[in-house]
Amino acid sequence: MGAPDPGRLPDFADVEDAAQRLAGVAVRTPLLSFPELDRRTGGRLLVKPETLQRTGSFKFRGAYTKLSRLDPETRRRGVVAYSSGNHAQGVAAAAQLLDVPATIVMPSDAPRMKIDNTRGYGAEVRLYDRASEDRIAVADAIAARTGAALVRPYDDPDVISGQGTCGLEIAAQAADLGAELDAALFCCGGGGLTSGSALALQARSPDTAVYTVEPEGFDDTLRSLSSGARVGNEPGVQSFCDALLAERPGELTFALNSRLGVRGLAVSDAEVRRAMAFAYSWMKLVVEPGGAVCLAAALAGKLELQGRTVALVLSGGNVDAATFAAVIGEGAAA
Amino acid sequence: MGAPDPGRLPDFADVEDAAQRLAGVAVRTPLLSFPELDRRTGGRLLVKPETLQRTGSFKFRGAYTKLSRLDPETRRRGVVAYSSGNHAQGVAAAAQLLDVPATIVMPSDAPRMKIDNTRGYGAEVRLYDRASEDRIAVADAIAARTGAALVRPYDDPDVISGQGTCGLEIAAQAADLGAELDAALFCCGGGGLTSGSALALQARSPDTAVYTVEPEGFDDTLRSLSSGARVGNEPGVQSFCDALLAERPGELTFALNSRLGVRGLAVSDAEVRRAMAFAYSWMKLVVEPGGAVCLAAALAGKLELQGRTVALVLSGGNVDAATFAAVIGEGAAA
Question: Edge-to-edge strands of the sheet including B124-128?
């Protein structure tokens, strides 16, 4: 496949183009207030539940944007993607809508719901073993055999600009509410959602500080932004946040996030569990571990919220029932 | 307390006044689309999640409207209400915001979350035993002793007009989406939400057919509307839908629902459980049993949806974790 061309960074016009492609296809998720959240944090928090997005996560935005920009001949040959589950569902659902054959390479230990739904959207799923197989090699082999185009999970200009429509909507919806955003928080694996959204916010809400939120142990973007160079995570590290286990920031996403002055935060698994339980009890929203990191950062006081207006994304809600039951049973948010 | 004056039916102007009182206080819940729901039903379903409302149910709308219309002297003496939990939380939260003392009479077997939250909003909770005590007598005794005003759960013009703001928002939001509503479905206990919303829809979307949805065994409104006279439920009947266990339609609510041509539907506990599991899996929303009856009616094909545009309310999301875990563990919506 080769590396993406780092010179080809998407710009705000690409985000606007993506928004046009997604109009009437993606769900324009609301920007919501929760009195109990404001009471606890002392701020005005505006919550963007991408859990309500088609496929249960924001990933549909980037996947559909990418596929809609492929030429007809490439679409005919199909697409291949590797993903632990949310990008998988996003690509599968976009491919189904656009009548493009899709093969998704997924780890055999991905949440059951994510595997089932990816198949449910009509994609062929190729499971691989995390310990013994390299997912990129598996995807490359499929691409070489079938001529399918690889849809990277984040390090792709089309995917980044598609995810950026989330930030574009946040800016517009906050303006509709008369809210001036001091900051906006984005869940971060490889950095696609943040970098695309930061592009949109720079254009439409330039005084808003943009933060990534990552799980502890997978805070590669935080450390990379701090040090000024891309660094990876320690091998063998674990996290409850299955959706955010990227090894290192993308080239394109890191270039954008650096240039746009994005800053990083990190949260523990325990903070994530408490945030999921809070979302259950006080927001009535089903949020998966990786989708709850921004809420966890807000509730755990990782940045100053008192008197400030801050947007945060709940990036996904694809969590198996047994996992969710265990978390809400802990009653940690009572 | 005496019965409400049946001659004093609220009108559309009362709903509009309530909307002004609630502006900036109640959450303007969104009207959402879910592709999987449309795919399964063949219709265009627009979902109003009152689960996202302050206190986790629509009941806040009516309670706040009522309290805001009390004169200062009455407010000083306080309010009393009886409720299995959602009206309880609505009254407690409204009382807290308006600095009114509140005592809530609740059954000792109400969901724990509802009792805890009612206390959390600062109300005094008086538990009673369903088998041996009459909640209205308990509330009347408190009112007689303290001079507190009774806030009825549904048979009150102010409460009805407050709940009607839900229907008013549905009409406005559907119009914003360019959708012409063929029908709208409302969860029904005593009929406050439906009758108020039917008032609003008659004024703003007169071609929309309005339906109540009740649990089987508590389908008193369905049978009353069919027969033309108020009838009650069989003694000793049970339902999973703790929020919808009214004994018979209210006088005011029945008068309005009759006059406005409302029709009734009913769903089984099993259909409700499947709807809650569907909402978990495909909508990422936490919905309590009574809040899921309209979704249950849609998924179970209780009315024709093919090619039609239909709004439905998810009226509440206050469900204990153990109950919710059991329902989603059944995996009934896979």
Answer: B124-128, B102-107, B79-82, B149-150
Residues A296 and A274 sit within 8 Å (Cβ to Cβ): yes
CB B220 within 8 A of CB B292: no
Place of tokens 């939260």: B93
Write down the residue that tokens 């998704």 correspond to. A104
In a domain, B98, yes or no: yes
What value does the mean pLDDT take over residues B88-100?
97
A-B CB pairs within 8 A amount to 72
Domain limits at A74? 60-150
Contact A280 B286 (CB under 8 A): yes
pTM: 0.95
- The 3-class SS string of B145-179 reads HHCCEECCCCCCHHHHHHHHHHHHHHHHHHHHCCC
Kindly provide the residue ranges of all beta strands, DSSP E only, lying in B181-229, ordered along the sequence: 183-187, 209-215
Total domains in chain B come to 2
Binned at pLDDT 50, 70 and 90, residue B334 comes out as very low
As a whole number of angstroms, the distance between CA A294 and CA A299 comes to 9
Which pair of structure tokens corresponds to residue A161?
Answer: 């600009």
Task: Say if CB B138 and CB B171 are below 8 A apart.
Answer: no
- The answer to whether A170 touches A48, Cβ cutoff 8 Å, is yes
Q: Give B32's contacts in chain A (Cβ within 8 Å).
A: 27, 30, 52
Residue A284 is nearest to which of B51, B325, B329, comparing CB atoms? B51
Which of B116, B92, B86 has its CA nearest to residue B104?
A: B92
Alpha carbon distance A156, A3 (integer Å): 10
Q: What is the mean pLDDT of chain B?
A: 95
CA gap A211, A185 in Å, rounded: 5
CB contact under 8 A, A52 and B284: yes
Residue B260: which CATH number? 3.40.50.1100
Q: ipTM of the assembly?
A: 0.94
Residue with tokens 């206050």: B318
Closest CA to B331 of A324, A332, A275: A324
**Domain termination residue (choose one: B127, B150, B173):** B150
Which member of B48, B59, B66, B114 is catalytic?
B59
Q: Are B182 and B308 in contact (CB under 8 A)?
A: yes
Report the SS3 class of residue B185. strand
The b/e string for A67-76 (b: 16+ C-beta within 10 A; e otherwise) is bbbbeeeebe
CA distance B326 to chain A (A): 8
CA distance A102 to A123: 5
Task: Look at residue B197 and give its three-state secondary structure.
Answer: helix
Chain B positions touching A285 (Cβ under 8 A) are 52, 284-286
Is residue A1 a part of any domain in this protein? no
DSSP codes joined into one string, B90-128 = HHHHHHHHHT--EEEEEETTS-HHHHHHHHHTT-EEEEE
Note whether residue B6 is domain-resident.
no
Write down which residue in A122, A150, A178 finishes a domain: A150
pLDDT beneath 50: ranges in chain A: 1-3, 6, 332-334
